[in-house]
Amino acid sequence: MSLITIERKVLEKNDAVAAANRARLARHGLFAINLVSSPGAGKTTLLERTLERLRGRVRIGVVEGDVQTDLDARRVARYAVPVVQLVTNGACHLEAALVQQALDRLDLGALDLLVIENVGNLVCPAAYDLGEAMKVVLLSTAEGDDKPLKYPAMFRNASVLVVNKTDLVPYVHADLAAIRRNALSVNPDLQIFETSCETGDGLSSWCAWLEHRAVKAHA
Amino acid sequence: MSLITIERKVLEKNDAVAAANRARLARHGLFAINLVSSPGAGKTTLLERTLERLRGRVRIGVVEGDVQTDLDARRVARYAVPVVQLVTNGACHLEAALVQQALDRLDLGALDLLVIENVGNLVCPAAYDLGEAMKVVLLSTAEGDDKPLKYPAMFRNASVLVVNKTDLVPYVHADLAAIRRNALSVNPDLQIFETSCETGDGLSSWCAWLEHRAVKAHA
Chain A residues with CB inside 8 Å of B10's CB? Predict the structure, then answer.
């Protein structure tokens, strides 16, 4: 049996579990996003700002994926939301079966929105469906304008791009128009938000969109 | 045959090719580093500044690894050094067999130092020996102080840590002492440099060390 056959079997098995996760989330009218990015693009901080702003408006559950440590789950738990930490122990991405275990530990009927924060990795998580409604890819302005071209699969498979750390633009000489242009050249259907968790710029648009989607899924 | 067996076989085969690469580099007295980091930590820019500073002093060859595009090789080629672009076509790391092909296309006898710039990924390249003398891991201050704890394998397998983008420290509230402490808690033997390719801070120490190692390997 060749390695390619094995890899295809792994992906097929993952897709089957992801489909079951998706059906389960749909039964609860639960909108789920799979938040992906390079390490340090600001996934957890964006999530913290989102939890602050949507408190009392949207009931949010969180699944934290990390290679090691529960640092992120501890950060998120301060916002008094249900959170499950998944530690991959070296693996470079979350898989649907791990997320299924996390779903077992959450009261899905008591939630409007599920945020799955993936391992920081702009390559491997692109290939793994977790059962989410959509992938949201975060890109920090400090990473360089060319990243959508160099890591196209993630931008192609995502529905939403959040360009984060816009406050750093003058210091890192980022070109927001070039980032948008490069991202749309890979995926013309990307919806794009621009945020700074430092200044708060753009967070209200992002949160309003997220609330709208959560309410719509629940209706 | 289980997936774990297959994975071990892949790694064993990779290690055998890596050993052959290492022996070949040693025959030419060629010091080779495997430059690894998250996407956008500044590997290519550090390499550009290094090429400028060591021009006429150290004969440098470059192997560029990318998931897609030859953008990096084109940047490096401006410095009139031999460069080979490896495109992994979706794979999340370089493997020794790909690097072997790159070595075939370089005049190894005419070089003192080989820089292999890996795919931007703080997880997967940790497991793949390419035949390098050492892994050099780059971490941008914008990525957050906790990254050595969250992605320990890469910091454990590297010999050198370059903390880059130190000019951003005040804007991203980075704590250089915390980064050093976290990195050394994972790997007490790490040699650490702090650089800014924007201001030039720290580049002379980094380049002096690199020149020293290249000369020593060649002697």
Answer: 3
Is A38–B123 a contact, with Cβ atoms under 8 angstroms apart? no
Cα nearest neighbour of B87 on chain A: A150
pLDDT tens for B137-150 read: 999 999 999 999 99
Q: What is the mean pLDDT of chain B?
A: 96
Of A39, A167, A171, the CB nearest to B38: A39
pLDDT of residue B111: 97
Residue A1 confidence (pLDDT) above 60: no
User: Buried b / exposed e across A154-183, counting CB within 10 Å, b at 16+?
Assistant: bbbbbbbbbbbbbbbbebbebeeeebbebb
Listing DSSP states for B157-189 in one string gives H-SEEEEE-GGGHHHHT--HHHHHHHHHHH-TT
CA dihedral A137, A140, A143, A145 (to 10 degrees): 80
Q: Average of pLDDT values for B35-48?
A: 98
Best mutation target, A38, A44, A154, A157, to test chain B (most B CBs within 10 A): A38
Cα distance from N-terminal residue to C-terminal residue, chain B:
47
- Contact between chains at B119 and A123 (C-beta distance less than 8 A): yes
| Average pLDDT estimate for B123-139 | 97
ipTM: 0.92
